[in-house]
Specification:
alpha+beta; Arc Repressor Mutant, subunit A; ADP-ribosylation fold; 4-stranded antiparallel β-sheet; 3-stranded antiparallel β-sheet; about 30% helix; binds ligand HQG
Length: about 180
């Protein structure tokens, strides 16, 4: 396996543990999503996943989407956004968004989204991108991509809150269908 393949595999594993299923290795995240790195490594080893400190830190540093953060004291790790684990209730910076944000999805979800708006599903927020290219790549994860433009500033003016995660991902509770239009590029 190449170094970058190994990093991708570890990144997926860290996303699984730090966003969704910490209990699968018997650990708990704090409300800001942090987990002690040594605890992560020990608990992972006890469940058959061998990691080491340098590898974990290298994956954090090289993550193209800056999915993870290391704490200031250098001892803890967290996923920046994307959580479904209910013990995590991260505080994010609330900001007025740009006029337009984008949401990438798959074509098979388009009719349902046009009908009921964007819903957060398993995650704690709907995830929005500041640029079209990122939205297209998010959409490709699910199938043939389709991109919605979100009238974010109009939504904000009507009282909907927007949060900006440290890695540039925008978050909202939901997006009602009236603020969405299919971006036909
Ligand atoms: C869709 C990635 C039917 C929604 C990305 C999406 C992101 C609906 C799927 C982050 C719907 C949920 C999150 C409705 C929404 N009817 N389908 N009413 N409302 N959906 O994975 O946004 O690479 O939970 O369009 O960059 O794809 O993992 O959310 O297709 O920031 O770091 O339901 O994950 O980051 O899928 O991705 P997800 P997402 P990472």
């Amino acid at each position: 396996m190449s170094g970058s393949q190994q990093h991708e595999q570890v990144s997926k594993y860290l996303s699984y543990i730090l966003r969704h299923e910490p209990h699968s290795i018997g650990v708990e995240l704090d409300s800001e999503g942090w987990l002690d790195i040594k605890t992560l490594i020990d608990a992972s080893a006890a469940h058959g996943r061998v990691l080491d400190d340098a590898l974990v830190r290298a994956v954090v540093e090289t993550s193209p989407k800056q999915r993870f953060q290391i704490s200031e004291d250098s001892e803890r790790i967290r996923a920046v956004q994307g959580h479904s684990a209910s013990e995590v209730k991260r505080t994010f910076q609330e900001l007025t968004p740009p006029a337009l944000l984008y949401h990438g999805t798959a074509t098979r979800f388009v009719a349902s989204i046009l009908e009921s708006g964007l819903r957060k599903g398993e995650r704690q927020y709907v995830h929005l991108s500041a640029d079209l290219q990122t939205a297209i790549s998010v959409g490709k994860r699910h199938g043939t991509p389709a991109v919605f433009a979100v009238q974010a500033q109009a939504m904000s003016a009507q009282g909907h809150k927007f949060f900006l995660a440290e890695n540039g991902v925008w978050l909202a509770d939901q997006v009602p269908a009236r603020f969405l239009s299919l971006d036909l590029q």
